[in-house]
Specification:
The chain is mostly helical. The protein has one domain. The chain is about 80% helix and about 0% strand. The protein is built from 6 helices and no strands. Helix 5 runs antiparallel to helix 6. The radius of gyration is 19 Å and the shape is elongated.
C-alpha cells in the first residue's frame, strides 16, 4: 500500500490501480452476498438443505467430490484474498489491536466458511450455524478492512497531492 501510494510509479497510475482494486472488491463483496443468497439462502434450514439435500425438492446432498472441488479452489482464492487484504491492512491507520483483531476475524471467518460445509454434510447439521456465522463474519470483517484501506488511501491523497 505504501509503495502504491508513495512509491516509484507515478501517483496517478498507482491511484488508478487502487481505484480499480477497490471497485473490484466492492463488486466481489456484493456478488458474494447475492451468490450466497441464491445458492444457500440465509436461513438455517436452507443451508442444511443445500448440503444434505431435499428429496421433496429433488435436491441431492453435496457429494464428496463436489465439496472437494469447491474447497480446492477456495483454499487458493481465499488464501490469496487473506494475504492481500491483511498485508494492505498493515498500512492503515487502525490501532495495532484492531489490526490484530481484524486479521484473526478474517482468518477464522475464512476457515469456518470453508470447513462448515464439510461439517454439515458429514458431522452434524447444526454446523449450518457455523456456515451462516462465518459468512457474515467474513462479510463484516472484510468490509471493515476495506473501509480502513479506503480511508488510508484518501488520507494519503490529502497529504500527497499531485
Amino acid at each position: 500500500m505504501r509503495v502504491m501510494v508513495t512509491g516509484p510509479a507515478p501517483r496517478p497510475l498507482t491511484r488508478t490501480i487502487m481505484v480499480f482494486f477497490y471497485g473490484y472488491f466492492c463488486l466481489h463483496w456484493g456478488t458474494g452476498i447475492l451468490m450466497f443468497r441464491e445458492k444457500l439462502g440465509f436461513s438455517y434450514a436452507s443451508v442444511v438443505r443445500y448440503y444434505l439435500g431435499d428429496p421433496d425438492m429433488f435436491m441431492n446432498p453435496r457429494s464428496f467430490q463436489g465439496l472437494l472441488e469447491v474447497t480446492h479452489f477456495h483454499l487458493f482464492a481465499m488464501g490469496l484474498f487473506f494475504v492481500v487484504f491483511t498485508h494492505l491492512l498493515l498500512f492503515t491507520g487502525y490501532a495495532q489491536g484492531i489490526k490484530r483483531l481484524l486479521v484473526w476475524l478474517l482468518g477464522l471467518a475464512l476457515a469456518g466458511d470453508m470447513a462448515a460445509g464439510w461439517l454439515v454434510r458429514y458431522l452434524a447439521e447444526s454446523f449450518a450455524w457455523l456456515k451462516l456465522g462465518s459468512f457474515w463474519l467474513l462479510q463484516t470483517s472484510s468490509l471493515l478492512l476495506f473501509a480502513g484501506l479506503l480511508y488510508a488511501l484518501l488520507r494519503s491523497r490529502r497529504s500527497h497531492p499531485d
